[in-house]
User: What shape does this take?
Amino acid sequence: MSALLKDTILEIFKNSRGILATDATEDTMDKRMSDVGIVPTPELRVRFREILLTTPGISEFIGGVILNDEIISSETSGGISFVELLSQQGIKVGIKVDRKTHDFANFPGEKIAEGLDGLRDRFKKYKDLGASFSKFRAVIRIGEGIPTQACIESNAEVLARYAALSQESEIVPIVEPEVVMDGSHPMERCMQVTSAVLQNVFFYLQKHRVDISGMILKSNMILPGKDSGMDVSDKEVAITTLEVLKRKVPEILPVVVFLSGGQSPVSATSRLNEMAKIGGFPWKISFSYERALEGPSLEIWKGLESNVDLARNEFLKRARLNSLALAGRYDLQMERDNS
Ligand code: 13P
Assistant: This one.
């Protein structure tokens, strides 16, 4: 494996660190802001990221931050680039390179990830800007008659072609096939679908000669559909998720990170903690959360400068608790502590 890819992975995850994915596209971020009563503007989108990334002490818990096109080329109010801001703190810079998911022709209700066109040149640009890892997300939906094998395979091949191009540029790929929580399906169905998706993703990664030891998998946890009305314990989620991953993920993969996918921040932390406590897996596990890390801070901030300190405290707290969870040292009681 390329020494650079290996070093990047080691550096991001050393000392129980994880990833902040603050890479929501402009329209998604605007929606998240509107949902908490903020009237979105480009300036506020950048300001929110500045508040998070200038929080003192985050580099103890966060080793990598995934940015999007808008933020990677923006500057803080202090006049330095976000890339520089992160580098100064010893945090690796990541870039989301997919161009979202789009309707999959001939397959109603299904999505295909796009973003391969021109990607080799874009990687060159991101490399020059200072990115050392990247992310590409595909979405698999569960429903009546879906996902189809065509959708699973097509997305898996797109992810594999992305990962090959990323490694060619010596940028660590984060391959993210997200089986989304939407729907009323039971947990078993999420288990079956995630197993099939991972099986195909690793088949295509190997077919495209991707170096599995120089990449990161970003996976969903195994959960019942959010409208299923089913209640599962955090331990059950942890056991089932590990069962699927241990069957489908090659041992040479260095790290599996999880997305939060709409789980509450506390659940996302607690389930990670349960997995760490169970142990016995050959790869490292960590977090790569967006909503579960920054969601509570966005709600507290509300776009007001007077709330900045409180928003930063909340962000640092979530980052710290998730880092503790990686060592199985998180406890619900810690949610009540003040910092
Ligand atoms: P969530 O943690 O909000 O699911 O976001 C993670 C992510 O990067 C989705 O692509």
